[in-house]
Amino acid sequence: MSKTRDPESTRNSIMKAAEQIFVQQGFAATSMSSIARKANVTKSLIHHHFGTKKNLWNEIKHRQFSQFASVQSSLLESSDMDTGLLKESIIQYFRFLQKNPQHSRFLLWMKIEADDTCGDMANEMTNLGIKSLQKAQEKGLLRSDVDPLFILMIFLGMAELWFETKHQFLRPGIESEVEYDHADEAYLEAMLEIFFKGVLPRENSSD
Predict the structure, then answer these.
(1) 140: nearest Cα among 87, 82, 198, 84
(2) Is the CA virtual torsion 106, 109, 69, 21 positive or negative?
(3) Cα(63)–Cα(143) distance, rounded to whole angstroms?
(4) DSSP category for residue 141
(5) Where are the alpha helices (DSSP H) in 51-82?
(6) Whole-model pTM over 0.85
(7) What is the 8-class DSSP label of residue 118?
């Protein structure tokens, strides 16, 4: 009864339940009935608040993207890009994925289902990142022979891939000295080392 008297609480309960199921099953395989059971509400109440399953899916994705975009955009807009700010931006994205494992699953489902409904927000963030990297290249802080879009894609991809696949590699039978409880930090350190060795300007050499 309390949910019906508190519309905001009802919406949050529905979104929390839907997020859990969407993460597990993706958009196509998720039914409104399963969301209703998980949230302990009727399907008609879900329709009342969100209209359709697609609207609910889009609202959850928008909330997922907004959480990261608000922090990342304020960081990139605060000052000109340099190697310190780039490192902080990479670490911040890694920490976001670390604290929000469901975001990686959402990204994966969106790739699988060719879903680009967050395109405007994603484009804005991508263009902001590209412009920041271009400024760093113009200052000679980053090598200029690599397209800034590729630099951005590489660091996003390295972070996302870890959280999408780490459970496949950190399992019995895989020969590795990495301890599971410290694997995130070990990977982040290795990722930063490899990334910055690739994007920093090269010293003149005869090699």
Answers:
(1) 82
(2) negative
(3) 35
(4) S
(5) 53-78
(6) no
(7) T
Question: Which residues does 76 contact at the CB level (< 8 Å), separation at least 6?
Answer: 85, 89, 128, 129, 132
What token pair was written down for 167? Answer: 């459970």
From CA 177, how far away is CA 183, in angstroms rounded? 10
- Tokens matching residue 147: 């397209």
**Which amino acid belongs to residue 73?**
S
Q: Exposed/middle/buried for 173, CB within 10 Å: 0-12, 13-18, 19+?
A: exposed
Question: Which is it for the CA torsion 163, 165, 168, 174, positive or negative?
Answer: negative
Q: What does the block give as tokens for 166?
A: 């780490």
Distance CA 55, CA 149 (A): 31
- The answer to whether 39 and 48 are in contact (CB under 8 A) is no
Tokens 């590729």, located at residue = 150
Query: Going residue by residue through the chain (207 aa), what tens digit of pLDDT does each one get?
Result: 344 458 888 898 999 999 889 888 888 888 999 999 999 999 999 999 999 998 998 888 888 777 777 777 777 776 677 888 889 889 988 998 898 877 777 777 777 766 666 666 778 888 888 988 998 999 999 999 999 999 999 998 999 889 888 888 888 777 777 887 889 999 999 999 999 999 999 775 444
Helical axes 53-78 vs 101-112, angle rounded to 10°: 120
